[in-house]
Specification:
Structural class: alpha/beta
Shape: elongated
Oligomer: single chain
Radius of gyration: 30 Å
CATH class of the largest domain: Alpha Beta
Distance between the termini: 53 Å
Strand content: 5-15%
CATH superfamily of the largest domain: P-loop containing nucleotide triphosphate hydrolases
Number of domains: 4
Strand order of the largest sheet: 2-1-3-4-5
Bound molecules: adenosine-5'-triphosphate, magnesium ion
Number of helices: 20
Number of strands: 14
Helix content: 40-55%
């Protein structure tokens, strides 16, 4: 999808060059402006997906420009251009929220690759936002995402069903989002302003569950010191979400049927019935039909619940969702963990797509959360995901991005990386003494200086405090 790019640099030649490259190779709309203050005004007047700005500019420099545009629109992707000597500042810029930086002079491919990546990321963000907006008209839940046709049609049906009072049954394997769908339906119903009340029907002994659901009167059983309101009463005029309904005991199935049919219930220990105005949503990972046929689940209750049915497919059946969900969870956990991880490497995405995920979306969510915690760079890589077979495949591809570059670019990148690390470790070992570092490396002092300059490294940073 074509986007809009604003390019700011007080060198007119650079603006011309960039504009030409982008116009030749992409369909994005390119706006150039040599004056950073004017550029800021332009930016505030119309929406841009991406900003490319020079670092050193006469009026407002790149970092201040970055801060200013981020204040106007936090989600814009800003790429900083800089010469080798100021690479440290560029690193600082990424800490301040720049998406990436490009060193000048740059190769045509480098700029095009960066632009494409930014635009891809922006379009995923937009897509996600559009889905959320479509579902949650203004505010509300923003948690449910999905790009697959099956999820899209679920969103569509949520919108249709939510405003009605119809009872909804949500089925599907564990971790596929049943609870989220229940929440979405409730939040988009006319009862959405009230709290949805959830009762989990598993793991609670029958008599406890009954009193939880319907409440009890004082003295109904030992330990019932006073009257207690049940969840049914609490959910009056709102939605009651019966989670794991397949685990309900036969006695409670009967009592629930009455509530569904007549809107009536009796608190434990009471002889009189009470009325409740409820909207019901139920969920289960059981095959309720099979349970019914095996006489484990009441037939009449089954048909009462099964008015509107949502069947959530396993994640394996909707691979189109994996990328969107991965980015969704990346954003969530990067924010939670205050980490600046902006992307998932192409290989990591490939590895995720190749997984089975028996635990469905919940499992994918866990994988990404763990990945974010272990990730050391600004990109989630295969090694961060700890997927067993992906690890093996990954050994043949040590750096997933490298393989996408032409040989010369890949070599330049590795050489640059090598120079930087080598120079840093020598300076470290020699406490910032350049002559000794050069001697240890067996190269001329002047050459060592040149390497330092190219990598933007200064010896001072390696001197011990008393030597400075
Ligand atoms: N479409 C989705 N978009 C975003 N997050 C999702 C989606 N589906 C599931 N999740 C996330 O996955 C996790 C599991 O979802 P949820 O609890 O709704 O599953 P469930 O079907 O109720 O599972 P179980 O049967 O085990 O109770 C949650 O953290 C939820 O936020
Ligand atoms: Mg659940």
């Amino acid at each position: 999808m074509a986007g809009r790019i604003l390019i700011v640099d007080d060198e007119a030649d650079m603006l011309l060059l960039l504009k030409r490259i982008l116009n030749e190779e992409t369909t994005h709309e390119v706006v150039t402006e040599p004056d950073s203050q004017k550029a800021l005004a332009l930016f505030s007047q119309s929406p841009f997906d991406m900003v490319i700005t020079d670092l050193k500019m006469a009026k407002m420099d790149g970092i201040r420009f970055l801060e200013a545009v981020k204040q106007i629109r936090a989600d814009v992707a800003v790429v900083i251009m800089t010469a080798f000597a100021t690479i440290e500042t560029a690193v600082e810029a990424t800490r301040k929220g720049a998406y990436d930086y490009i060193t000048k002079p740059f190769r045509r491919e480098r700029i095009l690759m960066t632009v494409e990546k930014v635009m891809q990321w922006q379009s995923i963000l937009r897509e996600n936002q559009a889905l959320r907006d479509a579902l949650a008209e203004k505010k509300g839940f923003a948690a449910l995402v999905g790009a697959s046709p099956s999820m899209q049609s679920i969103f569509e049906r949520i919108r249709q069903v939510a405003p009605t009072m119809a009872t909804v049954l949500i089925t599907g394997p564990s971790g596929t989002g049943k609870e989220l769908v229940a929440r979405a339906i409730h939040e988009h119903s006319r009862r959405g302003q009230r709290k949805m009340v959830t009762i989990n029907c598993t793991a609670i002994p029958e008599h406890v569950l009954e009193s939880e659901l319907f409440g009890h009167l004082k003295g109904a059983f030992t330990g019932a010191w006073q009257d207690k309101k049940g969840l049914v009463e609490e959910a009056h005029e709102s939605t009651l979400f019966l989670d794991e309904i397949g685990d309900l005991s036969p006695t409670l199935q009967t009592k629930l049927l009455r509530l569904l049919q007549e809107g009536e219930y009796k608190p434990v220990g009471s002889v009189t019935t009470r009325k409740a105005d409820l909207r019901f949503i139920a969920a289960t990972n059981h095959d309720l039909k099979a349970d019914m046929e095996a006489k484990r689940f009441r037939e009449d209750l089954y048909y009462r619940l099964n008015v509107i049915r949502f069947e959530l497919p396993p994640l394996k059946a909707r691979p189109q969702d994996i990328q969107l969900l991965s980015y969704h969870f990346l954003e969530k956990y990067a924010r939670l963990n205050q980490k600046e991880i902006r992307d998932i490497s192409p290989n990591a995405l490939k590895a995720l797509m190749a997984q089975d995920f028996p635990g469905n979306v919940r499992e994918l969510e866990n994988v990404i959360e763990r990945g974010v915690i272990f990730c050391r760079g600004d990109m989630l890589r295969v090694r961060d995901l700890f997927l067993e077979d992906a690890q093996k495949r990954c050994e043949a591809e040590p750096d997933d991005e490298l393989a996408q570059l032409p040989f010369k670019d890949a070599k330049d990148r590795m050489t640059e990386q090598f120079h930087r690390q080598y120079v840093q470790s020598l300076l470290q070992a020699n406490h910032g003494n350049v002559s000794r570092a050069a001697e240890q490396a067996g190269i001329q002092r002047q050459y060592f200086h040149r390497l330092m300059k190219e990598a933007g490294i200064e010896a001072d940073g390696y001197k011990q405090k008393d030597e400075r």
